[in-house]
Amino acid sequence: MKNFDQIARITISHAPTPLEFTPQLSKKLGCKIFFKRDDCTGLAGGGNKTRKLEYLLADAKQKQADTLVTIGGLQSNHARQTAAAAAKFGYGCELVLQEVAGTPEADYHNNGNLLLDHLFGAKIHLLKLSEDCSAYAATLMARLESEGKKPYLIPIGGSNAIGSLGYVRCAIEILQQLDEQKIQIDQIVLATGSAGTQAGLLAGLIAAQSDIPVLGITVSRSGEAQQVLVDTLLRGILIQLNLDQQLANGRVIANGNYCGAGYGMATDAMVAAVRQVAQLEGVLLDPVYTGKAMAGLMDLCAQGVIAPGSRQLFLHTGGSQGLFAYREIF
Q1: 199: nearest Cα among 166, 243, 242, 233
Q2: For a tag site, which of 45, 89, 156, 214 has the least CB within 10 Å?
């Protein structure tokens, strides 16, 4: 592998984030559950996108950009953190945000992440469900360039080979913490959506020659479709790290049984999972990602698919700011 620390990066996150045992939740589920607290990365309330932005902003700086442009759903956690990073480092910020079907009505358009986007000074372009986000962003990039600006386009979720390097670094961090705390784990469980977190984490584990399995609980598509998405990105990251892409064979696992009707659309199991973790551990999950992933973890433990007494590390990717947009659901 190429010297990882020589890859351009801007330090933003409060790392290492805590890795902690959850005694009440563990007792409830009959397994030893540990949380990797990437809701504590610091930027704009924390979340996993902060790690990705460390590499994306370094690339934007090398390209002498002055404006960050990105795409997401109306309550995108990635958009919130991008807007905060733009404010922190003096970039303009243009957010292309799209309506999401089947979401709450009372607070979805004026609270949660969207409220924070406004506070960070981002310019918001609100698109209807029928509009093409990628086409709109391409037109916006061209317009900004015609105005003499130097825009930098960040993909949905920051999930390209550059952004995913943040989770290569996180994998190394996790392995160091497990070693320091003398903890052995059987599996890492996380919410998987735009694929960069799962793919980056797997690439980091592969680079470190660790065979710890990573189970992605999907939030927006079938397990089969998610596996293809993650596998494709993982191979691209391995190539970027000068590693054999064949090392990706058989490493991607995704379970699509808990995403419900689609991205951002609440499920009863998600609501129950968010409530239980809040009341057992004082930890806030989110309605779009970690709530659904925890619902999956809980059900798999209840079914015995996850073996009783096993050690599971749940990657908490943040997003609790979105709870305020889902007030009526809770």
Answers
A1: 233
A2: 89
Q: What is the pLDDT of residues 7-24, one digit of tens each?
A: 999 999 999 999 999 999
CA 70, CA 31: separation in Å to the nearest integer? 39
Please report the beta strands in the chain, taking only residues with DSSP state E, as ranges in sequence order: 19-21, 32-37, 67-73, 92-98, 123-127, 151-154, 187-192, 214-218, 253-255, 311-316
* Active-site residue flag, 310: no
- Assess whether 170 and 147 both reside in one domain: no
pTM for the model: 0.97
Same domain, 203 and 317: yes
Report how far residue 322's alpha carbon sits from residue 174's, in angstroms, rounded to the nearest whole number: 26
- Residues 280, 33 contacting (CB under 8 angstroms): no
88 with 144, same domain: the answer is yes
Q: How far apart are the C-alpha atoms of 313 and 20, rounded to whole Å?
A: 9
Give the per-residue pLDDT at 3: 83
Of the residues 13, 76, 164, 194, only one is catalytic, namely: 76
Number of domains the chain contains: 2
Residue-level pLDDT at 177: 98
Are residues 224 and 261 located together in one domain of the fold?
Answer: yes
Please give the structure tokens belonging to residue 253: 């696992």
For residue 73, is it within any domain?
Answer: yes
Q: What is the CATH number of the domain that holds 95?
A: 3.40.50.1100
Contacts of 73 (CB under 8 A, 6+ apart): 97, 98, 100, 263, 264
Domain that holds residue 110: 63-158
Q: Which residues of the chain, if any, have pLDDT below 70?
A: 1-2
